[in-house]
């Protein structure tokens, strides 16, 4: 099971709980120190050290490199959790020329999933489907996503965040359409408002200390993630969940046509071209 954004917050809480239940984990994180502490936390509850890889999702070449390493080390991946995320400043674009929030929250995970798709296909079988789980947010409701130009600079980091969360849902919808024949089940979930390092500089998230009843712990937020990773029945490909039950999203985030357009523009943005797409789809 591969978990991105596993060195803190929801990702770390999920990794600890899944290790407690005996799952074999691969952790991805950006900060070496936090990643090493995450490895220690998982080892303490699971009894063995998980594999860990450092990668900055604001640099697509690092995503390509870590994807190649994981693919070389693992013949099968039963679950891929696209959890890495940030609420970044809009002042600077990434080295790849994209809005940093959109790249970290959508484009990097989109690319990594494609790079590991053959390993997911290899894992799907009689024991059950392979799974791709993406951390979403109710912020999708205010997103200003241009599905033809997903990486364009946004005027506000909150608009960028909402756009990235729309992209997470649209990716899930289109992945379900394209990959259902491979027995891969893509899902997306909303963890609720979480007290964590994420968004610490945001006035909205600073309310966690003033109105704690509105916020959940990372462990509570990770509950639906763990459930989606292990639940044997009832998972709907392309589904959106919160509190371990179906959740409602806006039409902009579930539109089949918008999902298709975003998929095509995302392939172009991350330079995963037609040859790569044909390869993972087993065509030609």
What's a quick, concise take on this entry?
With 284 residues, the chain is of the alpha/beta class.
Describe this structure in words.
- The chain has one domain (2-281): 3-Layer(aba) Sandwich (Rossmann fold), CATH 3.40.50.
- Helix content is 44%, strand content 11%.
- An eight-stranded mixed beta sheet has the order 3-2-1-4-5-6-7-8, with helices on both faces.
- By secondary structure, it is of the alpha/beta class.
- It has helices spanning 9-20, 32-46, 60-73, 100-115, 117-123, 157-179, 203-206, 218-221, 223-230, 256-269, 274-281; strands spanning 2-3, 26-29, 51-54, 79-82, 130-135, 184-189, 239-242, 245-246.
- β7 (239-242) and β8 form a beta hairpin.
- The protein is globular and about 45 Å long.
- It starts with a strand and ends with a helix.
- The protein has eleven helices and eight strands.
- Residues 205-213 and 275-284 have low confidence and may be disordered.
